[in-house]
Write a structure and sequence with these properties.
115 residues; five-stranded antiparallel β-sheet; alpha+beta; elongated
């Protein structure tokens, strides 16, 4: 089960590889999947979770997977509306995963004005 978050356009395979992504064998001839696995830890070091970021090329679809230390899906992440007591940790998980993807965004941050 994956959790669809967003899309990123114009990302190149070389950029993904430079940022620690590895190509995953996928049976679709029109798309490739690049995966990066990260250890999710918080400042207090109580969060023992693993994150996986999947990016499909050329569509740019990004999905996340979050598992616990036993490799089981982390239920509060996938059922956020049912786990109110985990809101803060889920928020932090999203921040950590999005920070990994944010460095891949190669769009210009400065808006240029035409004169």
């Amino acid at each position: 089960m994956t959790f669809l978050i967003s899309k990123i356009k114009g990302i190149k395979e070389t950029t993904l590889i430079k940022n620690g992504f590895r190509e995953y064998d996928f049976f679709d001839k029109n798309e490739k999947i690049y995966i990066k696995r990260i250890y999710l830890k918080d400042k207090n070091k109580y969060m023992r979770l693993n994150g996986e970021i999947n990016i499909r090329i050329p569509s740019g679809v990004i999905t996340y997977n979050v598992t616990d230390q036993n490799g089981q899906l982390y239920a509060p992440y996938y059922n956020q509306e049912w786990h109110n007591s985990h809101k803060e940790i889920v928020k932090r998980i999203n921040e950590l995963l999005k920070a990994e993807v944010k460095v891949l965004d190669t769009r210009s941050k400065n808006k240029k004005k035409c004169s």
